Amino acid sequence: MNVGESTRELPILLEDVSLAAGATTILDRVTLSFASGSPSVLIGPNGSGKTTLLRIAMGLIAPSRGTVTWGGRPAVPPSRRAIVFQHPTMLRRTAAGNIRYALRAAHIPRAVHEPRCESLLRLVGLEGLGERPARRLSGGERQRLALARALACDPVVLFLDEPTASLDPTATKMFEDVVRAVAERGVKVVMSTHDLGEARRLAGEIILLHRGRVIETGPASAFFDSPRAPEARKFIAGELLI
Q: Domains, the chain, ranges and CATH?
């Protein structure tokens, strides 16, 4: 990764960010910074604003108020940011064809498409499945293919929106292993999950959201060992946040 290119994306700073849809407040005065380092994991009940926050940080939607900057600049094109959703759409192509499409979209030189495609398939554990139709892959395989496709643009920041929510434990472990490998390569991972176990396994930093607000944020070890906010203690204990 080119260090100069990474500084154009990081840190991602959200300052006093709110988003409303009519009379409904989805995010409420959120201030956060995503810097390089270990994965940042968003947790919170359904409807807490996790997906919306990821979309705003990615640059897919604009806030109703507040500012978002990437590397200190507003309105940076998301050429070095990528996102994987909970239910990614597979193109009607082979697994390798899906990655080649992403390589073309990222304007990667054609001469390196095949080795890059093979490398990405290997990274996500799909080597040997490149010519299989993507829509015939298992759920876990499709999710890892979506991850490989997102990595085609060589992102500095990778957003993951509850990517293992519909996967079984074996597929979840395989996906988490890839996330760790990606993070170890220097890609900043920002991920949402409903699974506290997954958050414990992957997070360097935890952000707890509830009703569109940041309730608590900090190192994962401190959050799980000694949460400060009453809502955080309830959530860790498995109680409902209403």
A: 3-90+154-236 (3.40.50.300)
